[in-house]
Amino acid sequence: MGNNKVTSNLESLKALSEAARCAEEYISGIREQRVSPSSLELAELERLNSSLPNKGQDAQQVIADLHHYASPATVASTGGRYFGLVVGGSTPAAMGASILNAAWDQVAVLESSAPSAIYLERIAAQWLLQLLELPEESSVGFTTGSSMANMVCLAAARNRQYERMDIDLARTGLAGAPPLRIVVSAESHVTVHKALSILGIGKDQLVKAPCDNQGRVRVDTFPELDETTIVCLQAGNVNSGHFDPFKEIIPMARAAGAWVHVDGAFGLWAAASPKQRHLTAGVALADSWAVDGHKWLNTPYDCGVAICSEAQMVHRVMTTQAPYLQAGVQVPPKDMVPEFSRRARGVEVWAAIQEMGSEGVAALVERCCGFARQFADGLAKLGFEILNEVVLNQVVASINDESALQQIVRIVQEEGVCWFGTTVWQGRVALRLSVSSWATSAEDIALSLDSIRRAMEQVLEAK
Ligand SMILES: *Cc1c(COP(=O)(O)O)cnc(C)c1O
């Protein structure tokens, strides 16, 4: 045992220092690396695909090979010029904490299994509620992302609405239960639909609330509500970045006995900024919220947060009990999220907030919003039509010629200076930009606009 201990520690140290060396090389070159890999770099991945190895290999060599072949074929999303999906980078302290967290390798089930990690998650939870201005007694569960956070919150919503009908779902199950009324925004994110479907609520059961041309639900045509209703609103439309009118809808829904859930994967972070907070006015009156760490807070993947004002409801749905699981004083993570064994994702949340402070988080949000406006102005000068009101970090823009637009986007992606994709917004094919990274600078936006201009000239000259 003694000798084995020495060897295993030594091997770990060698692998770790090799990983640190490789990561350092990767990070120091990230701003020069193509944002999406070339076909050659992708082809090189083959070198990692041997037949199933019979014999093991030296850990240090495993890391070196990983870096050599896989690092060049990554998307340089931490470099500041990746504008696809909604993707944050990883702040320095959050990335460092993630490495330390890996070294700890804690199973964050119970206080006894991960004391410091769970302690940090509790602090991070309190800080999150303060930053987002949400009720302080809420339960806060750290999930893999907003998909799972939506599911946790909607599971609590579903069971609560059934409890009101004297149906204990945990005992009886869904079979035979009368259907709930599920009102979703016509613009709800696909993961809300997935969460509902996993929870036994099908597409035919959904009542869609019509939206305006910014993707906000309309108050005047909002569907009827009652005490069997769950309402799904959103903070931050995945295309336009816009917000539902919480101040009008939520009090009305709550008065009717409905449960209101808000999918705020990235948009809820507007609440952390004095300049953007007006967009989330009234959101704190909802019953539950899903938000991501890995998007706008710029913690590493993966990290979402399920927040529920009726903490006991989440605990009732997620609880697990067995004689070998000694209860602590507070509700353990295993009773706030679906996972039992889990990584303490809140550690990186703690580190990012400790590093930035509330002022730094506000500045990050405001900086990204400013860059989105810079993008929109630049695109308008190039002759694009901006299809959304740029109220947050999202820009949707188009030109009249759809095939030319597709060509422009493809040329930009191939050039590798920046990366973004296309979407369909209000029936029109458009390019879609999301500015969500702490690493993005004004120069990155200028370089990206140059790349778009070059692609545009190339496409229009060829006509
Ligand atoms: C990204 C996103 C989700 C899903 O979140 P994940 O963290 O990817 O699981 C849900 N809703 C909105 C609005 C999003 O932008």
UniProtKB/TrEMBL annotation:
Pfam families: Pyridoxal_deC
Keywords: Aminotransferase, Decarboxylase, Lyase, Pyridoxal phosphate, Transferase
Annotated protein name in UniProt: Aminotransferase class V-fold PLP-dependent enzyme
Lineage: Bacteria, Pseudomonadati, Pseudomonadota, Gammaproteobacteria, Cellvibrionales
Sequence similarity: Belongs to the group II decarboxylase family.
GO MF terms, alphabetically ordered: transaminase activity
The keyword Transferase belongs to this UniProt entry's keyword annotation: yes
Domain of life: Bacteria
InterPro entries, A to Z: Aromatic_deC, PyrdxlP-dep_de-COase, PyrdxlP-dep_Trfase, PyrdxlP-dep_Trfase_major, PyrdxlP-dep_Trfase_small
Originating organism: Microbulbifer variabilis
Cofactor(s) this protein cannot do without: pyridoxal 5'-phosphate
